[in-house]
Amino acid sequence: MARRRCGAHRAPGAAAAGGRDAAEAERAKQLSLLAAAAGPQAALVPLIESAAGLAALDELAAAPQVLRLAFGHLDFQSDLGLACEADEPELIPVRLSLVLASRRASIAAPVDGVTPDWRDLDRLAADAARARRGGFGAKLCIHPDQVSPVQAAFAPSAEQLAWARRVDAAMRAAGGGAINMDGRMVDAPVLRLAQRLLAHDGQGRG
């Protein structure tokens, strides 16, 4: 049986203790048992904290009631005997694997692990920026003081939102296809990126 861990989302970009279920997971059957115990209203966030969990990423991401994956990077290092420095280059392929599995399963972008020293805001900012660059959509927090900086790190900038609105308006006016905007081609993948930015902004305001 999977052990339950805190990890509920309180706001876009940040995750903290609360009302959704997160569990260390290595097999989809564990999640099925947890979902049955928690009820159909529960949103599960499997924590990937071991080599076994990494090997089962696609199975876990596709399990019923899974909202998104989360990376328990500290326990993962312990499981594999890694001794990463703060920038954790050894974990780049692991983080990318979570992002790819999430995309294949059409679930929300994964949640990155905690920054253990809640007093080190510079480290928190660097960790959150790395997570966002790497395709993560949120970050676990262990202290209330971490929530606002993490939200800010994952929120689209004013410049990004202005660009996204221009792209969306231009594509609507053109009726689809590909257009030229500021000397660059804008097509369906670019429009999807713009719409994701606008949707993220809408969640933050909701």
From TrEMBL:
Keywords: Lyase, Magnesium, Metal-binding
Cofactor(s) of this protein: Mg(2+)
Comp. bias (Low complexity): 9-20
Top-level taxon of origin: Bacteria
Entry's EC annotation: 4.1.3.34
Residue numbers spanned by region Disordered: 1-21
InterPro entries assigned to the protein according to its UniProt record, in alphabetical order: Aldolase/citrate-lyase_domain (IPR005000), Pyrv/PenolPyrv_kinase-like_dom (IPR015813), Pyrv_kinase-like_dom_sf (IPR040442)
A molecular function GO annotation: citryl-CoA lyase activity
Domain HpcH/HpaI aldolase/citrate lyase: 42-144
Protein name: Citrate lyase subunit beta/citryl-CoA lyase
UniProt source species: Variovorax soli
